[in-house]
Design brief:
Its EC number is 1.5.1.-. The protein has six helices and twelve strands. By secondary structure, the chain is of the alpha+beta class.
Length: 217
Amino acid sequence: MTTKVFSEQSILQMPQRMRANFINSLSGFKSANLIGTSSAKGELNLSIISSVFHVGAHPPLLGMIMRPHTVVRDTLENIKQTGMFTINHVHDGITKQAHQCSARYEPSENEFEEVGLTPQMSNMLPVPFVAESRIKLALEVEQVTVIELNKTELVIGRIVEAIVGNEFLLEDGYVDIEEAGSVAISCLDSYHNTERIDRFSYAKPNEKLVSIWEQDK
């Protein structure tokens, strides 16, 4: 294998789109999620996000990084106005519709209608799920922090409702996102199915790891 070395300076000198593709590829596979929000006026909004991550389990917290608020960003604005949002796993049957949500629609335009997805209101909050999603979460905002390095914003939400198909939930609480067809994103526009390698027992010093997938199925 031959390699190419990139210095920070050479990266910064790349054309903007090339640099964005390059850096977004380097972070590896990321989860693909649709973020559902509603404005203070009740206008529904849907956007595709690849920056959702686990923050903690007690309380149940998830975070996501939002791009700088230098232009109108309906999702972030709605989150700040209402203090709530939904996270909806993208599966392999709705990738085209999900990616279309990255288009810059006007605030008055309903992305659900524009891309052909169905809003399903949460039982707990006045905010829309994606009905077609197989794993969906409703969250209340706990904290929004501006990251001074690049003015992106870290949104941390607390899960108040989770909807998971029975066939994807194992007895020990493991959610089989592969069985649900949840997809991953690389770079900004490449969608991937996953293939599980294994699932292992809790790692302890001087103890042999055991594959637990077969016994949990």
